[in-house]
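Ticket #4471: structure output looks truncated?

Reporter: J.K.
Steps to reproduce: submitted the chain below (168 residues) through the standard prediction queue, then opened the result file.
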Amino acid sequence: MADEQSQAVGAAEEEQVQQQFTMQRIYAKDVSFESPASPDIFRQNWQPNVNVDLNTKSSAVDETGNHEVVLTITVTAKIEEKSAFLVEVQQAGIFFTSGIDAESLKQILATVAPNILFPYAREAIDNLVVKGGFPPLMLAPVNFDALYRQAMEQQAAGGELPADGATH
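Returned output as attached by the reporter:
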């Protein structure tokens, strides 16, 4: 009787697939910095208008559960109409997933993965800006969960997500 119970427990454990989400690698996919108005821009009073644009994109790397997530952050700083700098960083990572249903996987790749990638992208942007001769630029934390919910609400209300499934 004990054997039957342990066999039943073993079968139940096999049926219950263990969920797994692990980071395999983090890397810079693309980095760009432009300062078209330098050196004249350095003589102006530093009161820029700063615009930050975020985008996430994910895709399957292979059939074994690896996914690439790319977080793209573009920052433009202008003084009046002059562009002080434009910096764009595509911070990417490969994440292994197993045993996660499609809807949960979509949410994890749009929220958890960008939360892991964001500090790396923020540091790269700050380094580029400082090396370009400008004051440090510390980007505020981003709530990727709220951005994902907003994108899903927009989709539910009849709005379409971008063709690549990205959230902004």
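Triage note (M.O.): checked the attachment and the full token line is present. Strands lie at 20-34, 49-60, 66-79, 82-98.
Status: closed, working as intended.
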